[in-house]
Amino acid sequence: MFRLLTVAIAFSMLLMLLLVFGNVVMRYVFNSGINISEEVARMCFVWLIFIGAVLAFRAKQHLAISMLITRFSPRWQKIVHVLRQLIILTVLGLLIEGGWAQTVIGLSTVTPVSGVPIAVFSGAVWFCATAMAVMTLIDLWIALRTPATAENTATFMTSLDYIEDI
C-alpha cells in the first residue's frame, strides 16, 4: 500500500510538471492555454501533500523532540509514548470528523472549469487522518503489548517499522 502511495506522489508530481510547464509554453508560444491545468495541478498538489504526510508519519519523520523522554526510565517512556499516541488519536479523530463533514458539504459544489466536486480537496484530509489513525492504533496496540524494559524501549518508540510489506 505504501509503495502505491509513493507511486501516486510521483504521478502527481509528473502530472503537475507536465500541466504547468505545458500551460506556460502554450501561453507564451501559441498565445493560448490549457484551461483545466490550474485546477488539476492544484488537486494533485493537495493530494501530494497529504499522501506525503501519511508516508512521513509511517516513517516517523515528523518533528519530535525526545531529548527529555530518552532520560526517563523505560516504564515512563512507555507511559509517555502511550499518552502521546492517545493525544494524536484524539486530534486525528477531530480531523476525520471535520474532513468527512467538509467532504459531504463539498459534494454539491464543483470547480468552475473541470466540474470536479470540491470534495476532492477535503477528501484528502479525511484520507490522511484516517490512514494516520489506523497506524496510530496499530502503534498503540503494539506499545501496550510490549513490556517496558530497557531492551524494548526502542521497540515501542518505532513500532510502525513492522508494517513494511503492507
UniProtKB/TrEMBL annotation:
Cellular component terms per the entry's GO annotation: plasma membrane
Localisation = Cell inner membrane
Q: Work out whether the entry's keyword set contains Cell inner membrane.
A: yes
Please report the record's description of how this protein sits within the membrane: Multi-pass membrane protein
| Keyword Oxidoreductase attributed | no
Where is it mostly found? membrane
Keyword list (alphabetical) reads: Cell inner membrane, Cell membrane, Membrane, Transmembrane, Transmembrane helix, Transport
The Tripartite ATP-independent periplasmic transporters DctQ component domain extends over: 16-145
Signal peptide (residue range): none
Highest taxon above the source species = Bacteria
Pfam families registered for this protein in UniProt: DctQ
Record GO terms (molecular function): transmembrane transporter activity
Q: Name one GO biological process term.
A: C4-dicarboxylate transport
* Transmembrane residue ranges: 7-28, 40-59, 79-96, 116-138
Query: What is known about its subunit structure?
Result: The complex comprises the extracytoplasmic solute receptor protein and the two transmembrane proteins.
**Which protein family is it in?**
Belongs to the TRAP transporter small permease family.
Its biological purpose is as follows: Part of the tripartite ATP-independent periplasmic (TRAP) transport system.
Descriptive protein name = TRAP transporter small permease protein
